[in-house]
């Protein structure tokens, strides 16, 4: 798989994030819409893990290797999240500019994990990379919406919000190129371990961050659950459709 193709696919999560951000920037924002968007994004992420990443890794890895890699990914996300939370706590009495950068770092970590997943998937096959890229575009639309809505709530200027949203593309591209370069000549086991590692990252992000933020935005109701289910179903249908097209 050519490096330029990996770069092109890695642009998609950042573009999806930016598009969602612009919906929040120039459209209507509310706690209810944010709640639905984040539930849908969580459903998509859980579908990526359960429909694509784990089944792919199970083809090669023994169960205990899969468990170890998944656990390492979850713990890694928790460590990064803890560091960001400590920095946020230290800035609670600081300026709005400092708080802005804490939000920025948190979203950048999410985009970097998207890039890591795409680079690892591209090292396995182009078909897997395309399906994962499509899924991340779907998930990053509501995530981008949430990030810009957060920037607006913290009083960040519009011009700064737009530039910050656009710059997230660099994190997904950088992480994708790095992981692909490291894994493309590796054996099957390291590639699948990387997929399981990313699955742990994404699962913790969906369950602990996206859903928690959704609950803070607005209390859940049946529509919230429906949004979660719709996200899972949407990615599963997109995945099946793309795999059929690629096979043909």
UniProtKB/TrEMBL annotation:
Entry superkingdom: Bacteria
Keyword vocabulary terms for this entry: Membrane, Transmembrane, Transmembrane helix
Residues passing through the membrane, by range: 34-54, 61-80, 100-133, 162-180, 192-211, 223-242
Protein name: ZIP family zinc transporter
Organism: Pseudorhizobium flavum
């Amino acid at each position: 798989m050519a490096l330029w193709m990996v770069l092109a696919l890695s642009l998609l999560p950042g573009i999806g994030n930016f598009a969602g951000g612009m919906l929040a920037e120039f459209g209507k924002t509310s706690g209810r819409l944010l709640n639905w968007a984040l539930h849908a994004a969580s459903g998509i992420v859980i579908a990526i893990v359960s429909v694509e990443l784990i089944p792919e890794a199970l083809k090669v890895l023994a169960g205990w290797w899969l468990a170890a890699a998944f656990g390492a990914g979850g713990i890694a996300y928790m460590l990064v999240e803890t560091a960001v939370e400590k920095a946020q706590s230290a800035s609670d009495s600081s300026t709005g500019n400092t708080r802005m950068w804490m939000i920025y770092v948190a979203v950048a970590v999410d985009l970097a994990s998207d890039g890591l997943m795409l680079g690892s998937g591209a090292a396995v096959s182009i078909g897997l990379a395309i399906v994962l890229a499509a899924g991340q575009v779907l998930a990053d639309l509501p995530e981008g919406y949430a990030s810009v809505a957060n920037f607006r709530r913290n009083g960040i200027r519009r011009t700064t919000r737009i530039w910050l949203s656009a710059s997230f593309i660099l994190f997904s591209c950088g992480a994708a190129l790095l992981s692909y370069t490291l894994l493309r000549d590796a054996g099957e086991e390291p590639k699948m371990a990387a997929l399981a590692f990313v699955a742990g990252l994404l699962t913790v992000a969906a369950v602990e961050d996206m859903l928690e933020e959704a609950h803070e935005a607005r209390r859940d109701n049946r529509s919230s659950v429906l949004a979660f289910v719709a996200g899972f179903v949407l990615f599963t249908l997109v995945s099946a459709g793309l795999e059929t097209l690629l096979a043909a």
